[in-house]
Amino acid sequence: MRSMQPTLINYSSISQFYQLACDYGSKVFLSQKGVIHTERIICCGKPCSYNGSNNSGHIVSRSQDSIFKNGQQKCNTCGKTHQIENDFIIRFKEDLDQMILSEALSLREFHTSYSDIAKHLERTRGIKISSKTIEDVCNAKLESLESLEIEYEIEDDYYCYDEQWIKVDGKKMLRVVIFDYKNNRVIYEKTHGNLTKKVLEDILLKVFNGKIPKGFIFDMQPMYPNAFKRVFGKKIRLQFCVFHLHKLILREYESSLKIGKKVKWTVMHYYNLYTLFNILYNRTKELELLKEMDEQLKAYKEKIEGEEDISVYTKDIKFPKSYKSLMQQKEYIVRLYEKELMKTFREHLHQEKLRRKREKQTLKTRKKEDAREQLDQVISQINYYPKKIQERIKKIEKSFDLFTATDGEVLTNNRLEGFFGSTLKKFRKKAFHSLRGVKNFLLFQKMKYLGIEFTKSFSFQKNSLLFGVIAFFQR
């Protein structure tokens, strides 16, 4: 066999070939006809001779029309031809497949469609692969990882439970998650087409396997308390998520204040709203600020009503056409002042939220006894609230033990809600076209929990070597 000799034209390509072979630890030789040979094997007690290659070759890239010719050897004694397993060719194809798979999976993790991945590979790599082939390769890799299980230990602490509606090919499914509050990690995540009380009980029995934690936090579904008590006993602490409660209160309050399509808030409405938020969280500062604002508003209103000439207050104000009388204009000026007060209050809330975030603080919660006192005060003034809110207050009183089960230790499912928000954006919840797509999405999440890398990083040098060799072996 005559080896291919480097020239000024092919020197860089041959050096890339041997550099890659060195990286693989493969001892190979390149013939003048581009056949890749390995070391001679022994047959009949003697080294075989190099005998060209079979005609078919090993396709490296159809789109680049690039093939490897694997060398074969012949025994000079018995005349037998040996097809040699070439470690270089095997490793090269594995690397190339892994590089393409890594790029496809990385894009797929961010919900890129298979057809778009195919276009991306063609535009950036010059590699033409059908979207169906990419889909099959990605699914095969992910299916091989489906047996992975999240390892966890049940501790004497709180666990969060929640469900998220998703759409798969137009049909609704539930993404069920159980979350370890203390360690901030998921211990169970699967999809279910239908979640009955029996299915929920089976999930809890399987996940907790007879162990009883300190308690659970979940939203206000009526079936939850009974289902959890059946599995863990009547003494288990069950906490309704206060975050969900406050969302409901705000929505119902806005609905009560709606006039047409507009919601007309006042400083006093804000005050009444925050007396409800003050039941389970300490919102005394906000209530004091609103009380002060209400006094400012009353003083301003008295001042405006006593004025005969309001021109000094009407600079840069455009009155609605219907506001022609002096009284109407005074009411409008007072309303603008009230809006400024409410804007100041909202800015205060925002700044306080940022401050707590910077200082890594949370809102102060109330102990059960303190929360009961606050609720009693609200009930004593229940007639000041809209009818919908009065109904909500009665429901809070009825389920008071479920809102204070942790005695202020943990009140919300926010960590789990944050997990939902970071892993599946709202507009993506309806984007799944198949059950396979949902399984793949959940598998991506599981591998993150387990710290498993499903993609391999290829350096610029490695990319250069791979594509340089592909170009060199083009027919």
What can you see in these coordinates?
- The chain has 4 domains: 11-92 and 464-472, no CATH class; 94-147 and 453-459; 158-241 and 412-443, 2-Layer Sandwich (Nucleotidyltransferase, domain 5), CATH 3.30.420.10; 256-403, no CATH class.
- It is 49% helix and 15% strand.
- It has 16 helices and 15 strands.
- The chain has helices at 11-24, 87-109, 114-125, 131-143, 197-208, 223-232, 242-256, 267-277, 284-305, 326-358, 368-380, 387-398, 400-403, 414-423, 435-450, 460-472, and strands spanning 29-30, 35-37, 42-43, 46-47, 49-53, 58-61, 66-74, 81-83, 158-168, 171-180, 185-192, 215-218, 237-240, 258-259, 262-263.
- The strands form 4 sheets. Strands 1, 2, 5, 6, 7 and 8 form a 6-stranded mixed β-sheet that branches. It has a 5-stranded mixed β-sheet with strand order 11-10-9-12-13, with helices on both faces. The protein has a two-stranded antiparallel sheet with strand order 3-4.
- Helix 1 (11-24) packs across helix 16 (460-472), helix 3 (114-125) crosses helix 4 (131-143) and helix 9 packs antiparallel against helix 10.
- The radius of gyration is 35 Å and the shape is elongated.
- It starts with 10 loop residues before the first helix and ends with a helix.
